[in-house]
Input
Amino acid sequence: MKKIIALSIVGLGIAACTPTQQGATIGAGAGAAIGAVATGTAEGALVGAAIGGVAGALIGRVAENSDDCYYRDRYGRRYTARCPDGY
Output
């Protein structure tokens, strides 16, 4: 029963609206699992969920910035610039 509930929560998190929300949900779930396994306590799971949620939200936030494209110049250096119109 616990596995079904956990999978349901993950499924709802993946169905969230924005990449920030998806990242926060997945990060919180993973952080809670890692915190619970590492410490064996509920407090560890809560701390892991908080840290994972923040990290996941930050990663998701970066994924939302779709106005920039990544390019490489002729020397192999990577840079970002605004995407061409219609891209």
Summary: The first strand starts at residue 68 and ends at 72. The two ends are 46 Å apart (CA to CA). The mean pLDDT is 81.
